[in-house]
């Protein structure tokens, strides 16, 4: 008994349409990297997606191939003229090419307008179809096993949120309405968990603190001369922080009782202590929970290493925040095309970025620390020690109380030329 060619063709075309609809779903998922990170916030959703991804074994390429084969088989069953076959083949080929992309665009808009739950509804139907093709998927994976899947969430080379963001909303994209400043802010937020508190802290040696053992008038005079609203208080040594003084409390007490009756102990409040290795996003959450805007950092031995303020954390997102009391400070100034005076506290990363070097050393954050490590000793005050690193000469220009305040940098001719060329571009 001969089969009805119309029925056969309809059957295979139906299969092709269903498969291509599924391909469109997968294409839409691939184009929506941010969906993965939304789903990671819910264990059930991410587990379900992994089940679709790995258990059902979807292959976008395989779905397209099956779709094309379905149309070929359908045409072979049809008893049509050669002219009609050619015309129909061209029409269906266009459909097979454009349909998945069309579905992907529609689903992407549906997801953006209706949210994650609506999008997952389509993935469940796609999963049902995918189970049928598990054997074919395994064969497909075996053939191209050296290729990495773009949607492999568990891969060691999986993209980070910042990389996914860069792919989706790159500021160079002409169709993107985000300004570069907004893009940098979003990147700053997403990378906060990767940066530690010690990377943004004010070192203990640079932090303004007062000794509770000093005379009250002396402490209050010192506080009023500074532009800080919160001041750490220590007991004889800076490793023994006993509290924080808020200038608002000083003024309030002075208004009520007069300056002569103010004592630091009376206006002092408890300090927030955090480890220097805490991620800055966790520091911000801790500040919010405890209603503090300043935290004292300690190392693994319990020693105080510095402090960090809420402003320091916000600057990691929005950039430098300068108020009316901040004086502009240059990290370096130029003597000639090949000679510069650099601040010792300049971070090693910023030094590398500015002078196109590749200085690296474990447990060293600043160019001064890098130079001390290279010298092997702490230079004496007002001494001019020098060291060569990759042909670059570093000279201690100013040393005060065993701290390298300024360093003279003499670049190689090649680096000097490169630095001049970059300055011209800027």
TrEMBL record:
Q: Which PROSITE patterns match?
A: CBS
Q: Does the keyword Transmembrane helix apply?
A: yes
State the InterPro entries in the record: CBS_dom, CBS_dom_sf, FAD-bd_PCMH-like_sf, FAD-bd_PCMH_sub2, Ion_transp-like_CBS, Transptr-assoc_dom
Q: Which residues cross the membrane?
A: 12-33, 54-74, 86-106, 118-136
In what residue span(s) does the CBS domain sit? 201-261, 267-324
Question: What cellular component GO annotations does this protein have?
Answer: plasma membrane
GO MF term list = flavin adenine dinucleotide binding
Keyword terms: CBS domain, Membrane, Repeat, Transmembrane, Transmembrane helix
Q: Which PANTHER family match?
A: HEMOLYSIN-RELATED, UPF0053 PROTEIN SLL0260
User: What protein name applies here?
Assistant: Ion Mg(2+) C(O2+) transport protein
């Amino acid at each position: 008994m001969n089969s009805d060619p119309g029925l056969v063709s309809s059957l295979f075309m139906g299969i092709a349409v269903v498969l291509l609809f599924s391909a469109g779903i997968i294409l839409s998922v691939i184009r929506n990297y941010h969906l993965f990170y939304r789903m990671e916030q819910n264990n059930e959703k991410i587990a379900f997606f992994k089940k679709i991804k790995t258990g059902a074994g979807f292959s976008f390429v395989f779905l397209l191939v099956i779709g094309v084969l379905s149309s070929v088989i359908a045409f072979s069953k049809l008893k049509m003229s050669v002219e009609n076959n050619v015309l129909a083949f061209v029409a269906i080929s266009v459909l097979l090419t454009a349909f998945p992309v069309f579905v992907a665009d529609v689903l992407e808009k549906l997801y953006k307008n209706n949210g994650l739950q609506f999008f997952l509804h389509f993935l469940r139907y796609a999963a049902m179809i995918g189970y049928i093709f598990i054997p074919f998927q395994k064969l497909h994976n075996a053939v191209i096993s050296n290729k990495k899947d773009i949607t492999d969430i568990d891969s060691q080379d999986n993209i980070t949120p910042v990389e996914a963001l860069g792919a989706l909303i790159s500021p160079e994209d002409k169709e993107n309405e985000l300004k570069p400043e907004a893009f940098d802010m979003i990147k700053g937020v997403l990378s906060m968990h990767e940066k530690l508190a010690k990377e943004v802290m004010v070192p203990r040696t640079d932090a303004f603190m007062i000794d509770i053992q000093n005379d009250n008038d002396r402490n209050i005079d010192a506080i009023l001369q500074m532009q800080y609203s919160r001041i750490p208080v220590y007991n004889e040594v800076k490793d023994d922080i006993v509290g924080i003084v808020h200038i608002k409390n000083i003024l309030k007490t002075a208004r009520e009782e007069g300056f002569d009756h103010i004592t630091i102990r009376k206006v002092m409040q408890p300090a927030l202590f955090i480890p220097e290795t805490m991620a800055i996003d966790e520091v911000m959450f801790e500040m919010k929970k405890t209603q503090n805007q300043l935290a004292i950092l300690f190392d693994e031995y319990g020693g105080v290493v510095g402090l960090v303020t809420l402003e320091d954390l916000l600057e990691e997102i929005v950039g430098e925040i300068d108020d009316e009391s901040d004086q502009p400070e240059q990290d370096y100034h130029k003597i000639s095309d090949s000679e510069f005076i650099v601040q010792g506290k300049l971070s090693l990363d910023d030094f590398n970025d500015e002078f196109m070097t590749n200085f690296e050393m474990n447990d060293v954050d600043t160019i001064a620390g890098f130079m001390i490590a290279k010298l092997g000793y702490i230079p004496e005050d007002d001494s001019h020690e020098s060291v060569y690193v990759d042909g670059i000469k570093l000279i201690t220009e100013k040393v005060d109380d065993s701290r390298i305040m300024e360093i003279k940098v003499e670049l190689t001719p090649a680096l000097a030329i490169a630095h001049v060329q970059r300055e011209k571009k800027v």
